[in-house]
Amino acid sequence: MKYITIITLALVLIGSYGCKEAKNKTESTTDGPMEVISGTKNTESLTILMEPKSESEVRGEVTFTEDDNTVKMLAVFTGLSEGEHAIHLHEKADCSSDDGKSSGGHWNPTREPHGKWNDEGGYHKGDIGNFTADANGDATVEFSAGDEWCIGCEDERKNILNKAVIVHQGKDDFMSQPSGDAGARVSCSGIIK
User: Fold this and answer.
1) Residue 89 and residue 189: Cα distance in Å, rounded?
2) Where are the beta strands (DSSP E) in the chain?
3) For residues 165 and 48, is the Cβ–Cβ distance under 8 A?
4) Measured between alpha carbons, how far apart are the two ends of the chain, in Å?
5) Using the 8-state DSSP alphabet, how is residue 35 labeled?
6) What is the maximal distance between C-alpha atoms in the chain?
7) Contact 179, 113 (CB under 8 A)
8) Which of 111, 86, 118 is nearest to 187 (CA)?
9) Taking a C-beta distance cutoff of 8 angstroms, is the pair 101, 91 a contact?
10) 80 DSSP assignment
11) Per-residue pLDDT tens for 119-166?
């Protein structure tokens, strides 16, 4: 009987030690700040802040979301003049110059002529198009690139990382080469993780 009591006591002690160790390990892995990851394995999201260029006051926030190989863009702007403006992706994530020209020309990895997105005559991968700002200078742009863009993939004909978002003062005419004659670059941000 004494022997069974000793074995039982030993098992209880071993069990409680194991639970205490598991608790300590759990506590030690949650001591620091916790990062919450949302979405699924196939979803990625990146938000960038736009800064004014060419002495404008145009600011904004652009979010790119990739879900099952489809990239969508949602952009919200303030400080625009009322009317139509062009928005494009440019070839370099460099917004260091006052006029935004440090971002280079339109992103055009397939060497197509400038045009309207999905036009049979050709278009740049960065040719997003035009949008309209209201009387307060506010605008929201929703755009889907389908599977023609990706966020960080290895295909340089699709990868939008290290490119720039540019908002122009005027509208894109979709004909003038190589950029659509959209005027000054009034807001810029690099697409950087």
Assistant:
1) 10
2) 43-52, 59-67, 70-78, 83-90, 127-133, 139-146, 164-168, 185-190
3) yes
4) 67
5) P
6) 97
7) no
8) 86
9) no
10) P
11) 777 788 888 999 999 999 999 999 999 999 999 999 999 999 999 999
Full strand arrangement of the beta sheet holding 185-190: 127-133, 83-90, 164-168, 185-190, 43-52, 59-67, 70-78, 139-146
Over the chain, what is the mean pLDDT? 82
Q: Report whether 125 contacts 110 (CB < 8 A).
A: yes
Q: What is the pLDDT of residues 18-54, one digit of tens each?
A: 444 444 433 333 333 333 334 455 789 999 999 999 9
pTM of the model: 0.76
Helix, strand, coil abundance in the chain, percent, nearest 5: 15, 35, 50
CA quadruple 94, 100, 104, 110: dihedral sign: positive
Written as six digits, the tokens of 66 are 């990739």
Q: Tell me the per-residue pLDDT of 75-93, one tens digit each, with 9 for 90 and over.
A: 999 999 999 999 999 999 9
Note whether 82 and 35 are within 8 A (CB): no
Residue 179 burial (10 A CB sphere; 0-12, 13-18, 19+): buried
